[in-house]
Write a sequence for this structure.
């Protein structure tokens, strides 16, 4: 009777199983970009207005993000950067992190661990705050979406 309750050694998941979540995430993001690429945010009535912009007339750091995604979906990088440059940077960072994840999953390694130091998080927050303030000042009109 010995061995009945003995734990069985776990077998590592196969390549397909390791790539299932990154593939699912890619499908979701591609679907979102495809939708924004087809349904133009520059035409009124397709998406809700930014509540901050509607109530105060001020642009938040996300204002222009959909226009930026629409331009990226159409391969128009200058228009994407003009609509919301931090969003384009965010898309690029996400693409790099996803690529690292897929490479590691393909090789059987662990997913990348994202653990930025507090100074980096504070720096990003300060940069986004500065971007938001400058885009709402008279001389920051070139940052309007």
């Amino acid at each position: 009777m010995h061995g009945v309750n003995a734990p069985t050694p776990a077998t590592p998941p196969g390549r397909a199983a390791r790539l299932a979540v990154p593939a699912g995430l890619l499908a979701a993001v591609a679907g979102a970009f495809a939708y924004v690429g087809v349904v133009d945010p520059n035409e009124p009535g397709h998406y809700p207005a930014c509540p901050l912009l509607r109530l105060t007339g001020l642009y938040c750091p996300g204002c222009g993000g959909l226009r930026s995604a629409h331009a990226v979906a159409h391969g128009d990088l200058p228009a994407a950067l003009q609509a919301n440059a931090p969003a384009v940077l965010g898309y690029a960072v996400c693409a790099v992190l996803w690529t690292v994840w897929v490479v590691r999953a393909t090789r059987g390694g662990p997913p990348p661990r994202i653990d930025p130091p507090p100074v980096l998080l504070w720096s990003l927050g300060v940069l986004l705050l500065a971007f938001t303030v400058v885009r709402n000042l008279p001389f920051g009109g070139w940052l309007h979406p």
Observations:
- The radius of gyration is 21 Å.
- The longest helix spans residues 77-107.
